[in-house]
Write a structure and sequence with these properties.
The chain is mainly beta. It is built from 3 helices and 44 strands. A hairpin with a 4-residue loop joins strand 4 and strand 5.
Amino acid sequence: MNLTNKCSLYAACFKVLTYRFALICIFSFSIYISRVDSQPLSNLTMKQSKINHRSQMLLFADKLVFDHDTDTITAEGGVQIRYSGNRIVARHVSYNQKTKRVIAEGNVKIVDAKGFKLYAKRIDLTDDLGEGFINSLRLETLDKTYFTAESATRNREQMTIFNNGVYTACEFCQRKLRKDVSWQIKAKRIIWNNNAKNIRFENSKFEIFGIPIAKLSTFEIADSTVKRKNGFLAPHFSYKSYLGFAIKNSYFWNLAPNYDFTFSTTGYSKEGILTQGEWRHLLEKGEYNIRFSYLYQTKRNNLDYWIPEQHKTNRYMFSTKGQFTINPCWVYGWDIMAESDSNFGRTYEISGYNEAVQRSQIYLKGLYGRNYFNMHFYHFNIQENILRNDPEQNIYKQHYSKQPWVLPRIDYTFIPEKAVFDGELKFTANLQMLYREKTDFALSNAAVKSFASISRTNTHLTNKLQWKRTFINNYGFVFTPIFSIRSDIIDNYKNNPQTDQYYNTLHGMATIGLETHYPLLLITDNSSHIIEPIAQIFVRNNEQYTNRYVNEDAQSFVFDATTLFLCDKFSGYDRLEGGTRANIGVRYSTNFNNNWSIYGLTGQSYQLIGRNSYDFNDVIYISANSGLEGARSDYVAMLSIDDGNGFTLTSRGRLDKKNLIIRRGEIDLQKRFNPLMFGLQYAYIERQADYEYAQNRQEISVRNDFRLNDKWQLSANASYDIVSNTLIDTGTKLSYQNECVELAFGYLRSRSPREHAISHKWNFLISFRTIGDFGSNILP
């Protein structure tokens, strides 16, 4: 019954009890939270608790007694107290004003305003929070970490001691009290020191599913007010056939709140010891890091002669990365890597520097509305297992490939906020200045000694101004006229007089274009369909000096459905489409009421007037056998199907214009049959002897994911090169995951089609939530 309306004396006395007990509620949670990334303890102490002392207090109890002789106020029978967002439930609550102690007994439950939950049989605390005792407690924090203990005491030295305590991040509720959790730490004593900001486990052991795994004796972790602390990090383990078994140990120094240093050593059974260090520094406007790696090569005699490791005893890598904000529109940064040989970062899989192509760069970026500025200085480092300057390797002696220094590349885009003649005006500019020490020869065309790029300096400046506007007439036709003018200035340093190249060139391209499409909407009882014929025509002058200057940045070219309706199908600025060309196609999309959807596109391109840029090859034959070299191009098409229930099919390709033979094709199939997910990818590319590949290319990849139950999953993948009859890679992964632990084992077997050596990699990872990861990253 509600006593606040019946007895004003009891209500006044018990208001004192309730206020003090509300503080006890806050205190109870502050002393038991141990998760490092949970809410800071200081936010829950008495001094910083945000209790509104004027808020309404509600008290429910079967009986309220005030003893004048002992100065004790007692509430009995189904006691419930709600005050300032905190809720206290117990069978018996008393407050002795002489001893200044509050006692709650009988299934005590406290839930504070933030949601922390404490369960206990008995709580006995002083009202100033200095000392106290809790019997048979269980604590649940907001981030789902749990403490249980037979008892807990708190002294005036700001130290809380849990006796016979258990800590875990696994779900621990009433229905699982008799069931072993995935993992837990049991300790004779768990001591939380509020002054030292740490939690100490004494005479402890680590258990998995109730089975003791390791006796930990005594160790410490930081409490929740400490985000970073000096100490050893969890070790990582791995195995690779060419490196052997590896174990990595790291030590972390928290030197200041905004900078730290990590030192690591990794021992390889076949290589030696890899030493690494990383300095991280956070500043007001950005952050940066500095990293180094060093290895003393101990076993070089077993390696092939042409491998870089054979010729290096001291191997190392240095890198630094950073980014800073100038203002809300501008940022600058860098990412620079230097290594002792051509394959150090990739061999030892240095995080962030283990790709086959590593780009070192310094950049400045600006973005305001639709306007954009980007300036990059960069250099490519090709990481490969070949000694480039070996005099016995003739292919590298005769055709030495030197990557360029880009000093710099600038991209700029400006679009006025207001429309110009009711259309969009767009200005783009590109400047690239390259320096190369030696000429990069192209090896694909055996009949002609061509080269991809020349030595010394090459400068290319492009400016383009474009205007377009969209009209829709009364019949639903959509018209988009396009006008553009472009100028290119090319300046090459003349170094080789035997090459027939222009070294100071100025040429321009003017374009008048029109795009029209007519979408037709068809609606039936169970579906809707859109059929959209599309036609484009672009009238331009011919491309100038096609084979008289070097193509540096447009060396990747693919003609398919995604590039059909581009005004210029070349990928970079050094080549540009010329002459009068028309692109015609049909786009189709449909949606069914049962969630199925279909999207398709097919079309063809025509060279009408002028010189066909795709039939007039540059020095590296970039557009040879592309499907656009004739007056009428090959057909391109794509198809995408989605049933809305886990099945997707995407395919695209290029078909011969005469006999519809597939010249290039890709298929990507995904289907989920619960609990199985199946994926299939297939790619076929016809040979391009004049350009790069003398043989057809075919590859098929398969991936399967099988979910055994809600926690166990098995994955497998394989890639096979059909032309060379090579199993490129195959791998499998078994994983287990619940709310507090993740366990995974992975294996990968890989082999390059051009190499005989087979690589084996074994990885495993066990991750305990709130504690850390042991092992290494699992292979995809």
